């Protein structure tokens, strides 16, 4: 027995290693001395049903209020007094000095801004005030002016908001100070969010003339010895209402004048007030952003990818678990979404948005889903900061909500409670309050994402020690212990503030302190070997908070900083060199050089031409596919306009056809000998929607005839509206639709290519079919049409039987992939792998197309949308570029975790029900919300009588085995656009630059754009055909891939190729005037024309 105890003791001594220290360590209130807790007391008359912002919480302000070299913290309280804590200089220990410093409050305090308002070098405290009170005097904002400079260093404040003209009483959320008019003093922008008596998501006209109660305020500092602020909102153009929750200041257009980003809640869009340099602002949100966050809360602006451009992070409330999502998300409402747009609102979606600035453009691409930061539940404060000092800014997001008021079962209860308007209002209030008190809490850990580079973030909340559940609101970062890493402080509801010590030790760093009477708006660049980082000094960021007054830079393993460039707010420049690392570097205002112009790069490769005679605009007729099939995740009706290029009139100059939607006009643009274009209408029946087109010699008379594919989904089932058309050329460019030359085709088409599959010298046709309208995703029949003297015969079942119900075809190309002298057919479609049908010839001389081959063509299943071929690696065979859905989507795949679809008439009502499933946290769930599912299949209400039962039901528990086994089933395992290298016996997939994954790719043009002898590619895409929960795919601005001559591609940035609309086709045309032009066919938008410089 004695030996046994010795072994146990040795095991404990040597065998158990201590748990590794996590990056963040939560310091207890007893250790830190910070006892502040933003406690909320509710009642029948005061709760979230009466005051919807009761749980929005308070903020944190950081500053060295007593100038002892350590950062202090100030918390705003709602029902409790705000509190000030001084840093004692001991490791993360603080002392509450609220009473002696005279900063106690009794109002409902929201945001806090630490600012040296009178430029006496002592930090002051400005507090925004709101609350559930009608007495406006109780909503007056507060200004605590630091008196230490006149009190011999004794820390004491004096409340002076009224004396300064800053006692705003308009339901303030937060205030940012900056010098908008460049007069050398700080002005104030007060973010406002007034209480309303109506549903703030109810559709109504925008309030854009300053009449809205939630119109923000701009106060100009009139620059006296004691500053006096004047409300100049009207004359400055601040006149558009927004339910403001977040504000950030940045120079978004890099013109040296700071702009304002306001993140707004509910119906109201975010506002981007761009400084016009004349004392006025212009809202550019609709121009800068393609879509926004719906319930926008906090916002931060910083350069997260080190491209020296300002990126924007706005947070919402989309949960990251299936249960929470299904309990919160109602059905998508496409008709309401379209009404919002018609009323002038920009598209909004209920998720976080990460807007990445595009080089050379004043436009941002929203990539939150690609970066993996779109769903962090009920979120408040996003903060970009380099928490591990590796040279890349990470992302912290605070979240939590005291009661789950978005619970759809609770919403349904309230609707039923108040239905009809009958009953005792007092009793109803009591019943609602009782139900409210029984709601679950949204008490979850905050999120932290490590920046992994290449636009990717990894959730490290647990591994970094940020795993304590809380109701967190405002947050700020600061180096409280002066050890060179950023600590965190969070203002919590009903629990002590969270103080997180950062234990990072592995990397080097530099902290910069700017010493000048006005540093707000200063810009810095730090050069350390190949790493160049930028920063903009503006402490007000996140949510109702302000961070430390330093600029912090992680350096990774780099052991020196080569130089620091500063552009001061007045435009003066300064360069500091030979800077020691791992220290605070103080920079005094000593300009030593003139303003540097941004380094001029080579002229863009492409230029868009706006004044041409190629004037065409595609108009998309509004058709709501979701009204017929609510479970669809994309409309099937937005596919044009197709473009086809050839010399159509035989004059030696290239012309082009451009198609149209049903009820619209299609044209051929003829080019004359001088390079001028004139257009001629191509007649068609009103019900035809053009989806692809091809010029080829159909009848062997030496001229170019025109084949036009009919598609779309506006007519259900099989219809003559989907019959393709063949227009014969009279030899002079006169085209006439000749009926009877094509067999009957009554399913929606998508693609056409010419292929001489039988080697008889004339061109046959492959016609790809998109779908049977109303029967998605059941594969439709595609066609192989043999040319018999200009009359085309359907020989699909005889010569290419695999084309019968092959899939939902999107594109096709013809090439000899196996170099046997026969033409092969490559096909792209969704819910299917790429397919190659090889040209074959049997011993009897019969030709056919078949996938059977010694060539390995095991392609992954995908949402394949486009194809292009070329010998990219110059090894003598043809490779493939294949466009796919991309990674910027709420649909995700992983090994053994595909996206799947099950389609059947589950309720036996005569319509097909397509059920899409996905994996979340390694479990398989239906994608659709309960409202959408029951709208499509009403009988499911019996199976799922409430939202919780649906939210808890895995897919296999939602249908019987018989129902699942009898349904049509398909899956998708790959969403990336890829390059497939032809090795001579197989195709090998290679990744492309991450920017190619921003959006679906619908058009690919191959050419040697940089004249280096290797084939390059232009890619276009985007789609507004998606359902309204996942939202538009609109992040692509066109992608130029240059061949790296090593078997891969590199992204050409700032190429000048700005194809940022819903681009479906791209073609090249040779012209007399401008050599080659590039034509981009955009859905529901004008034709874009580019030239190569």
TrEMBL record:
Transmembrane segments: none annotated. Gene3D superfamilies: Integrin alpha, N-terminal (2.130.10.130). It holds the Pfam family FG-GAP_3. Keywords: Signal. It comes from the Bacteria. Residues 521-585 form the ASPIC/UnbV domain. This is RNA-binding protein. It comes from Arcticibacterium luteifluviistationis.
């Amino acid at each position: 027995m004695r030996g046994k105890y010795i072994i146990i003791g040795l095991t404990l001594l040597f065998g158990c290693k201590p748990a590794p220290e996590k990056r963040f360590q939560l310091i207890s209130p007893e250790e830190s001395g910070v006892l502040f807790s933003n406690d909320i007391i509710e009642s029948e008359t005061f709760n979230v049903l009466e005051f919807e912002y009761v749980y929005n919480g308070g903020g944190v302000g950081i500053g060295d209020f007593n100038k002892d070299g350590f950062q202090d913290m100030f918390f705003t309280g709602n029902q409790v007094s705000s509190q000030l804590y001084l840093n004692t200089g001991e490791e993360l220990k603080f002392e509450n000095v609220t009473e002696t410093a005279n900063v106690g409050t009794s109002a409902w305090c929201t945001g806090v801004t630490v600012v040296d308002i009178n430029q006496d070098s002592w930090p002051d405290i400005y507090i925004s005030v709101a609350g559930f009170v009608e007495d406006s005097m109780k909503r007056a904002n507060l200004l605590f002016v630091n008196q230490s400079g006149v009190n011999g260093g004794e820390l004491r404040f004096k409340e002076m908001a009224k004396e300064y003209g800053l006692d705003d009483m308009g339901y303030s959320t937060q205030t940012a100070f900056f010098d908008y008019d460049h007069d050398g003093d700080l002005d104030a922008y007060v973010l406002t969010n007034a209480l309303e008596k109506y549903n703030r998501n109810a559709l109504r006209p925008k309030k854009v003339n300053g009449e809205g109660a939630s119109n923000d305020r701009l106060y100009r500092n009139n620059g006296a010895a004691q500053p006096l602020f004047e409300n100049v909102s009207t004359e400055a153009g601040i006149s558009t209402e927004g339910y403001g929750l977040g504000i950030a200041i940045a120079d978004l257009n890099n013109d040296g004048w700071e702009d304002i980003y306001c993140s707004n809640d509910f119906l109201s869009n975010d506002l981007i007030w761009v400084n016009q340099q004349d004392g006025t602002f212009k809202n550019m949100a609709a121009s800068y952003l393609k879509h926004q966050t719906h319930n926008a809360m906090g916002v931060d602006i910083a350069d997260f990818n080190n491209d020296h451009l300002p990126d924007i992070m706005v947070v919402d409330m989309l949960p990251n678990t299936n249960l929470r999502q299904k309990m919160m998300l109602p059905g998508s409402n496409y008709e309401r979404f379209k009404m919002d747009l018609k009323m002038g609102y920009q598209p909004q979606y209920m998720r976080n948005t990460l807007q990445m600035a595009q080089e050379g453009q004043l436009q941002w691409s929203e990539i939150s889903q690609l970066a993996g930061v779109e769903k962090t539940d009920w979120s408040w404060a996003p903060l970009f900061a380099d928490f591990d000092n590796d040279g890349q800014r990470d992302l912290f997001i605070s979240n939590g909500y005291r009661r789950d008021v978005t619970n759809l079962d609770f919403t349904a209860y309230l609707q039923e409670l108040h239905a009809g308007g009958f009953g005792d209002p007092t009793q109803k209030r009591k019943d609602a309050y009782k139900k409210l008190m029984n709601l679950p809490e949204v008490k979850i850990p905050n999120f932290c994402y490590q920046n992994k580079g290449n636009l990717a973030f990894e959730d490290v909340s647990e591994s970094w020690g940020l795993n304590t559940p809380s109701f967190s609101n405002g947050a700020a970062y600061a180096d409280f212990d002066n050890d060179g890493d950023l600590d965190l402080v969070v203002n919590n509801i009903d629990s002590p503030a969270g103080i997180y010590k950062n234990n990072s030790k592995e990397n080097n760093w530099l902290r910069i302190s700017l010493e000048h009477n006005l540093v707000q708006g200063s810009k810095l660049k730090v050069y350390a070997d190949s790493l160049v980082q930028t920063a903009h000094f503006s402490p007000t960021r996140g949510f109702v908070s302000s961070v430390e007054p330093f600029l912090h830079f992680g350096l990774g393993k780099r052991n020196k900083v080569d130089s620091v460039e500063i552009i001061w707010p007045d435009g003066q420049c300064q360069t500091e060199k030979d800077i020691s690392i791992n220290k605070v570097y103080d920079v005094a205002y000593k300009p030593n050089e003139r303003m540097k112009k941004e380094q001029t790069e080579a002229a863009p490769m492409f230029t868009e031409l706006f004044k041409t005679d190629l004037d065409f605009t595609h108009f998309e007729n509004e058709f709501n596919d979701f009204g017929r099939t609510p479970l669809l995740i994309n409309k099937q009706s937005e596919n044009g306009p197709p473009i086809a290029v050839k010399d159509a009139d035989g004059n030696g100059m290239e012309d082009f056809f451009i198609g149209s939607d049903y009820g619209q006009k299609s044209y051929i643009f003829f080019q004359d000998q001088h390079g001028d274009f004139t257009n001629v209408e191509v007649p068609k029946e009103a019900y035809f929607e053009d989806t692809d087109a091809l010029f080829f010699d159909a009848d062997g008379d030496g001229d170019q005839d025109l084949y036009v594919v009919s598609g779309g989904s506006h007519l259900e089932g099989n219809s003559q509206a989907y019959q393709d058309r063949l227009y014969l050329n009279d030899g002079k460019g006169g085209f006439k639709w000749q009926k009877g030359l094509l067999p009957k085709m009554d399913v929606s088409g998508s693609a056409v290519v010419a292929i001489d599959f039988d080697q008889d010298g004339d061109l046959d046709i492959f016609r790809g079919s998109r779908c049977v309208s109303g029967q998605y995703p059941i594969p439709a029949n595609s066609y192989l049409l043999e040319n018999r003297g200009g009359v085309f015969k359907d020989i699909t079942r005889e010569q290419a039987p695999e084309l019968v119900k092959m899939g939902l075809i999107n594109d096709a190309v013809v090439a000899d992939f196996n170099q046997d002298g026969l033409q092969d057919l490559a096909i792209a479609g969704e819910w299917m792998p790429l397919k190659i049908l090889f040209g074959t010839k049997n011993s009897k001389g019969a030709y056919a197309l078949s996938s059977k081959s010694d060539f390995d063509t095991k392609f992954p299943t995908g949402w394949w949308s486009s194809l292009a071929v070329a010998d990219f690696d110059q090894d003598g065979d043809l490779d493939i570029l294949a466009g796919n859905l991309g990674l910027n989507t709420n649909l995700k795949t992983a090994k053994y975790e595909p996206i799947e679809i099950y389609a059947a008439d589950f309720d036996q009502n005569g319509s097909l029900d397509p059920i899409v499933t996905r994996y979340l946290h390694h479990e398989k769930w239906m994608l659709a919300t309960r409202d959408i599912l029951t709208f499509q299949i009403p009988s499911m209400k019996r199976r799922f009588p409430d939202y919780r039962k649906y939210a808890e039901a895995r897919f296999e528990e939602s249908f019987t085995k018989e129902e699942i086994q009898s349904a049509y089933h398909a899956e998708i395992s790959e969403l990336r656009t890829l390059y497939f290298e032809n090795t001579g016996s197989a195709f090998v997939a290679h990744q492309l630059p991450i920017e190619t994954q921003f959006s679906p790719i619908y058009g690919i043009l191959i050419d040697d754009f940089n004249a280096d002898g290797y084939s390059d590619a232009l890619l276009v895409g985007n789609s507004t055909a998606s359902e309204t929960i996942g939202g538009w795919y609109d992040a692509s601005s066109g992608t130029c891939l240059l061949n790296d001559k090593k078997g891969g591609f590199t992204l050409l940035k700032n190429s000048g190729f700005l194809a940022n609309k819903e681009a479906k086709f791209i073609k090249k045309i040779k012209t007399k005037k401008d050599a080659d032009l590039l034509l981009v066919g955009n859905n529901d938008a004008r034709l874009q024309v580019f030239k190569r410089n």
